[in-house]
Write a structure and sequence with these properties.
Layout (H helix, E strand, L loop, with lengths): L1 H22 L12 H8 L3 H4 L8 H13 L3 H15 L11 H6 L23
Protein name: Non-specific lipid-transfer protein
GO biological process, one term: lipid transport
Family: Belongs to the plant LTP family.
């Protein structure tokens, strides 16, 4: 039973990534730095960690966190990343307290907020330490 639930969770995450990738242009415009589809695809390997299924984030997860850290530059990017993650995570079972731990565990200055359905993404002025 648990195996089936885990498979559904992973299949849902994969489907969400595919749908987001199809809904955006494959190549961002020169002035577009932040992309929800890219964010979701880079952070999908982190679902095991934020879903409390693994003790530490994987190397692939940390590589994605590092890449996302470099793409979030403006207040609009921060709000967009928060909204993107809020929407994507609303369909998954996860531990919100593990999201902010990703920066420390992966060694980046980007600090992701503890995102829940009630998170007001407009209040995050800075995602950096």
């Amino acid at each position: 039973m648990l195996k089936a639930a885990a498979m559904r969770t992973h299949l849902f995450a994969l489907l969400a990534v595919i749908l987001l990738l199809l809904s955006r242009p494959a190549v961002p415009s020169p002035d577009e730095k932040f992309s929800c589809a890219t964010t979701v695809s880079k952070l999908t390997p982190c679902t095991g960690y934020i879903g409390d299924k693994s003790k530490e984030p994987s190397k692939t997860c940390c590589d994605g966190v590092k890449e996302i850290s470099g793409s979030i530059k403006s207040k609009a990017d921060r709000k967009g990343a928060c909204e993107c993650l809020k929407k994507t995570l609303s369909r998954m079972k996860y531990d919100p307290s593990r999201i902010p731990l990703l920066s420390k565990k992966c060694g980046v200055s980007l600090v992701l907020p503890s995102i829940t359905n009630s998170t007001d993404c407009s209040t995050y002025e800075s995602f950096y330490l």
